Amino acid sequence: MSIESSDVSSKTKEVLIKVENLSKIYGTGNSKVVALDSVNLEIYKGEIVAILGPSGSGKTTLLNLLAGLDLPTTGTVVVDGREITKMTEEEKAKFRAKEMGFIFQFFNLIPVLTAVENVELPLLLNKVPISQARARALELLEKMNILHRKDAYPPQLSGGEQQRVAIARALSTNPKIIWADEPTGALDIKNGEQIKRLIIDLNQEFETTFVIVTHDQSVAQIANRIMRMESGKIAEIIINN
Ligand code: ADP
Ligand code: MG
């Protein structure tokens, strides 16, 4: 299967995420770590961006700050016109629930909920009525080719199956942005290929913006732009198309 990156260049470039002077310093004194060092960047609507770089270069820190999961030491993050670095925790939680989906390396599914319950949870948190939430969850599981396992609990599923459920869950609220931290990190090649294909399809069908932290060069290849990180800075931006 060949995988090409989607073409964002023909679309009008609308800035969806704007980062200015973003720094994160952990600890103090001798144990001080500059994890992120005055980063500036823009991500466009409908773009797939890969964040590549060695372990410890600040990729996860950057992703967590972009998604408002952590507070920066300096700088601002504006997502879809809203400055998330100024929001309260409650405002951020609401904003995330409505506009963002998350896919992590270790899936983060809730083990005591079935596959379908995991997928409908974000909808219920958004106050979608249960019957509607269930219908949408089933539709997404079907799209991810995992509907036959809807009543299974995460520990009963393979890695690839869990990741498909996690993606269905990330998509449930039809978010504008999906953040993914090493989405193929725990998968074999075949499942990794499927996930990449899915990301491309979703990006093309819904114009979902993807920001993907990865070690995997083949994942980076599906991105419109690759931001290469080194020691807390964006060392290079590579445009794929
Ligand atoms: P990456 O995801 O690229 O591997 P991280 O963003 O996780 O890198 O980490 C960047 C740097 O910040 C590393 O030196 C790491 O040890 C440090 N770091 C990350 N999280 C914390 C934390 N909670 N407390 C202290 N240092 C941290
Ligand atoms: Mg990381």
Name the features:
Rossmann fold, single chain, six-stranded mixed sheet, 241 residues, binds adenosine-5'-diphosphate, alpha/beta, binds magnesium ion
Structure report:
It is a single chain. The chain has helices at 59-66, 89-99, 115-125, 130-143, 159-171, 189-206, 217-220; strands spanning 15-26, 33-44, 48-52, 74-79, 82-83, 100-104, 177-181, 209-214, 225-230, 233-239. With 241 residues, the chain is an alpha/beta fold. The strands form 2 sheets. Strands 6-7-8-3-9-10 form a 6-stranded mixed sheet. A 4-stranded antiparallel sheet has the order 2-1-4-5, covered by helices on one side. Magnesium ion (MG) is lined by residues 59-60. Adenosine-5'-diphosphate is lined by residues 26-27, 33, 35, 53, 55-61.
Q: What topology emerges from the helices and strands here?
A:
Layout: E1 15-26, E2 33-44, E3 48-52, H1 59-66, E4 74-79, E5 82-83, H2 89-99, E6 100-104, H3 115-125, H4 130-143, H5 159-171, E7 177-181, H6 189-206, E8 209-214, H7 217-220, E9 225-230, E10 233-239
Helix pairs in contact: 3-4, 3-5, 4-5
Bound molecules: adenosine-5'-diphosphate and magnesium ion (MG).
